[in-house]
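Q: Could you predict the 3D structure of Putative exodeoxyribonuclease 8 PDDEXK-like domain-containing protein?
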Amino acid sequence: MKKRLSFSSLKAFSECEAEAVAVMNEEWDRQATFSPSTIEAMNAGSYVHKFFESEEALNEFKNEHASDMFTKKGSLKSQFQMAEKMVKTLDNDPLFKAIYQGSKELEIFGKIQELEFQGFLDCLNLERNIFIDIKTIRGSIGDKEWSEIEHRKVHWIEARKYLWQMAIYQELLRQSDDEKIGKNISPVIYAVTKETFPDSAGITLPQSWLDDAMVEVCEVTDKYIEVLNGRTPNRCEQCNYCKATKRNLKTISYSDLI
Ligand SMILES: [Zn+2]
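A: Sure. Here are the predicted structure tokens for Putative exodeoxyribonuclease 8 PDDEXK-like domain-containing protein:
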């Protein structure tokens, strides 16, 4: 298991402890279970980030992904056509252009509940005391998604645990011993949509919600520490890993399924 956690590994652990631990122990390749369209969407999201990081980063990405970006006939794949539209939208967004300034792709480190954490900031703007995270999303900015934990639809920022991510990054920045970095830096989620006419918005988050998210993060890190100390990780019995490693030993009642 990893001694240093990231937001994505903690989120994975909260969804299925058994799968997350198997991934960390290199016993399960989660990436291999992703569909080609999911991978293409992830790469297209990276393209948007790289565009606004630097010309050098974008060129490096293009060289690395030339075979992923184009069809056999040489035209740009649909997800990358979408990525170019999203880039144009952000590039013409006066608020985005004004605030997406400062250090890009910055790695940060710190501790939460004695566990080492690391994070990547898309952009740290010290003049405005904010950090910005670009999110490329499928639906509209106000969309809600089904939450398996809540058993109801919640806004995508909540469903994807982005409040956790922003709370973790805020805490890691607070711990920085760089004197230029203040102690009260606020996150901005910059959303850009994959709609026919992409929409964009800079979204701030109430501090009390970030504080509540941090309490939840600490609850999950406590569980992670339990597993580090030898507790058997819980299985969700829903994910691909659990299905692939399931060993039926007794029947189940139909009444439990409905
Ligand atoms: Zn599972």
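Q: Anything worth pointing out?
A: The chain has one domain: 4-243.
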